[in-house]
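Progress report, Aim 2. The chain analyzed during this reporting quarter is listed below.
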Amino acid sequence: MSTPQIPDEFLAKAARRATARMARTDRPFLAERILGVTAHRVRDRRLKADLLSAAADAQLSRGLVPRHLVQAYGAELACADAHLKAGRKKEAAASFANALQLAFHRVPHIDRLHSPLSDDPGGFTARLRASATGRATAAPRGRRTPAAAAPTDRPLRLLVVTRGNANFLGLLTERYAQHPGVELRTLDLAADPVLAPLAKGLQRMIELPLGGQASYGAKVEAALRPHLDWADTVFVEWCSAAAAFMTLVDPGATRIVVRLHKYESFTYWPHIMDFSRVNDVVFIAEHMRELTTAAVPRLLDADAPRLHFLHNALDLRRFDRPKQGDVRFTVALVGIGQIAKDPRWALDVLRLLRSRDERYRLVMVGDGLKPGASAAATAYHAALEKDLAELEPIGAVHRLGPTDDVPGVLAGAGVILSSSVREGCHVGLMEGAAAGSVPVVRDWPFVAGRPHSARTLFPEDWLVTTPQQAAERILAVTASEEIRSAAGLAASRHALSTWDWETVRDDYDRLLLGADRNVSSLVEHALREADTS
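Predicted structure tokens for the chain:
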């Protein structure tokens, strides 16, 4: 005898009661279990997704990661796939966008000290990759012709594209603006009056490859085509909205290069991109390539873009200056504006140091946290402010805030600390090492224990796991100024020889100009052009 099916209306009522209870208690686990059971038994696809999404939103609004987050975004994906099967492209795109925004909400991945995506990249994105709508959105649409080889009879036309964030482009654009073998143009999608309104809108970017939004597609084609027709190579900074937007159209014979830093791996953008229209993807760290390809395994397919690891473009020599005054007991932390920097971990290290010698102090450089981003950010900010209220009045901590003279600040620091839970390369740490401050690097938990991590990016003796180990390393390397100075000099030599732009720039030349490119002939060509003009 079969068990009678409980009506959806009854199950929905129970699920809503569970959701309401989660909003009133700090121990929502039983309510979450009830929600999971009831939502699982609901037969109506749309009702199931609505119930799970509402419950997930309730938890996320409190700064908590829902236990059923994958189940919730999976239920919305099921709605998207049903719409797509029925030919409802607009509705499919809307549901798929909802699923992505839920799956990659900032609370689980940005505003906490661990992430379900970093814990299990392939598992977290499995339902997304299994979705018919997801596969159709990112399906390879290819190009009419392969990317052409770099020209040999004229300068390479290089277009550098970003969307509002050019923080790491200065050295690149400066080099190629002056390079005789390159004709450079830059394009900020956020500032261009024609492209700015087109280069946003997740839902329509999804609907276009599904076969909808024909008018939008025509506008994007018309706006991008002059830029693509001019360029031999397009370098897109950040594998996010700008990169996804650029792959909405066939680039023709133009080569497309995309650089991914760190943030993008915890967003939905790589999951909707058509990588068949990208020739090369550049990662600034091996561990970011490893994590990203685990979450987006089609990047490892036979027809995927070429994958590269190139260090960030950093001018580290400006940090190589003599230390100012007695720096032995000053520890610097550069960059505190994100929870991922985990400045509270640094304060734990400071407390341990001061229990041994009260001369140690921490200088915190950069903008502070923005507590309004989410409830999780608000909670961390409140706890941090409580810690600082204890330590600042006694002179243990100095919050410097943002400054235009980071080299000057680091000239007064004997130690540079990386307390982060995740980083791409941690520019502030590299700058501190170049400045001769002794590096102390937390083994970034998001990637710790993987084949590539902070331990494969930095020398092993820089790495620590716990605040206790960090304090012991600092005490050892600052036992005397002679010991500290020698360790700082070794760190500076390593930083300058490994990460400085003078070392790294040849790698970018090989990537963007071509390994066999005859630069001398291009110089001669440029001189002939100048003579004839």
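Residues 516-521, 523-528 have pLDDT under 50 and may be disordered. The longest strand covers residues 156-162. These observations will guide the mutagenesis work planned for the next reporting period.
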